[in-house]
Fold this sequence. Notes:
Layout: E1 2-6, H1 10-21, E2 25-29, H2 32-41, E3 43-46, E4 52-54, E5 58-60, E6 71-74, H3 81-88, E7 97-100, H4 106-115, E8 121-131, E9 137-150, H5 157-168, E10 172-175, H6 179-200, H7 204-208, H8 211-228, H9 239-247, H10 257-263, H11 274-284, H12 289-298
Parallel strand pairs: 1-2, 1-6, 2-5, 3-9, 6-7, 9-10
Antiparallel strand pairs: 3-4, 8-9
Amino acid sequence: MKILIVGVGGVGGFLGSQLLKAGHDVFFVARGKRFEFLSKHGLEVKSKLGNVKLDEINVLKTIPKKEKFDVIISTVKLYDFDDFISEIKNIQLSDTIILPFQNGIYSEQRIMEQFGKENTYGAVAQISSFINEKQIIIHKGILATFFVGKVKSQNSEKLSNFSNECKIAGLDLRIKTNIEEKIWEKFIFLSAYSGITTFSKKTIGEIFTTPTLKGMFINAMKETFNLSKYFNVKFKSDPIQYWISKIEKMPFDMTSSMFLDFIQNKKIELKWLSGSVVEYSKIFGNYCGTHKMIIDELNIK
C-alpha cells in the first residue's frame, strides 16, 4: 500500500519504520529541523522490539497534491491539526483512509465535519516513544499497540486488509468495531493526566500519594467520563476503575508530555484536552469544576 505519514515524532516515526519493514511504500512529511535531519540522515528507531536504521526515506516538506495514497496517518500535535485538514482538502482523497492518531476527541470531530461520517476513522496509539536530543526515536518498554476503526459505521474491507498486512509484518494494529470506546477511554485518562501533572508540577506517583491531588485527578476523570454519555459512548466496564488500577502500576516518576512541553515554554495541547471537556460541558450542562480550574490556573501563566 502507498502510505503517507504526516508528523515524524515518536508515534509517526515508529509506525513508519514498521510499515517500511513490511514493504509498504511510505512517504513522510516533516518540517524545519526534523525535515533537515531526516533528509540527510534517515530514520532511526531504538526499541526492545527491534532497532531500525533506515539511511534513506521519502521525506517531504509539504503534503503532495498530485499523489494518491491508500492510507494517510496523522500524528501531528492537536494545535497543528487544522493545518493538516486544510492541506489534505486539496488532494485526491477518494477511497483514502485517514487515521488520526491524536489525543482527545477533536480530530475525529473535525474529519467528520469536513469529509462526512462515511470517511471518518478513529485511531488510538498505546505506546511510549519520543525523539531524543540526537533525533533518534526511543521506544520505552514493549507496549506498542494501535487501535483503528470506522466511527459510527461498519469497518471497510480496505482497513481490514491494512490491519492484516500490519499483523503479518509484526505491527500490532487492531481493528475495533467500537473505536469510540477506545478514543474516550484514553481521553478520560489523558485529559486528567496532562492537566493535573502540568497544574501541580508533580509526577503521577506524587499525585496519587497526595490525597488532595489524587481526589482532583479522579474527579477530572469522572468529569470526562460523564461527558462521554452525551456522545452515546458505551463502555464494557467502568473506565474510572480501570485507570485507577492501571495508575497504581505506573512508574512513580512518570509525567505527561504536556508538562514537559509546558516547562520548556513550548505550545501545549491544553485547549484540546481540558479545554474540550470545558467547552462541551457548557453545551450539555455537564459539571466540570476540576477541568475549569486547570484551565483557569494554567491560563495565568
